[in-house]
Amino acid sequence: MTGPQHGGDASGLEQLRAALILPQASIHERDVFVEFLVAEQPFVVRFLMRLGATSSDAEDAAQEAFIRAWQMLNRGLWFKVREPRGWIRHVALRSWQRPNGCRRRDREIPTAEVPEPHARPSDGSELTLATLATRSALASLPGNEGIALALKMDGFTSAESAQILGVTDQQARDLLKKARRRLRRTLASEQPSPEGRTL
């Protein structure tokens, strides 16, 4: 998100509060909304990245979702949303997925230097490789399976996920089971064998 940084820094929060002028919302409503934004924005970005969005695309889509929420607050509609955490992820996801939205951009190419072949990996590199492999496997999950798993990872129940996805509770549970099975298979197939070959 562009603008002030929201890393839990009290001065950043105060700057954001000072910048927001709402004709329709009370100061208390504005403060509650800002606290929601500060608390949820990094998790919305992470949610989208789990589905394959680049960091910048995820931030753009999250920003669009929070702008829509802001507009609703300004019209007095925000506090009528029953599940704000689910709503904001749903809107951010749709923003990222729409044909003329963020997702159409080419994926970013990593620019970090690749170590020489004889260089010994630094501590934690195996964890980084495992994280990248897991993230890639999550992003490869088809449609609602990936979304159901990403919602579960964000702490949503099957009932909440079902509401966000527009399916029944049982369908949401089935999507989650399929996603977990597919993720296990994908990660197992990428594990190197003792001879260094992929299984």
From TrEMBL:
Family annotation (Pfam families): Sigma70_r2
Record-level Gene Ontology MF annotations: DNA binding; sigma factor activity
Domain RNA polymerase sigma-70 region: 40-98
One GO term (biological process): DNA-templated transcription initiation
UniProt keyword list: DNA-binding, Sigma factor, Transcription, Transcription regulation
InterPro entries from the UniProt entry: RNA_pol_sigma-70-like, RNA_pol_sigma-70_dom, RNA_pol_sigma70_r2, RNA_pol_sigma_r2, RNA_pol_sigma_r3/r4-like, WH-like_DNA-bd_sf
Cited SUPFAM superfamilies: Sigma2 domain of RNA polymerase sigma factors, Sigma3 and sigma4 domains of RNA polymerase sigma factors
Top-level division of the source organism's lineage: Bacteria
Family, per entry: Belongs to the sigma-70 factor family. ECF subfamily.
Record's protein name: Transcriptional regulator WhiB
Provenance organism: Embleya hyalina
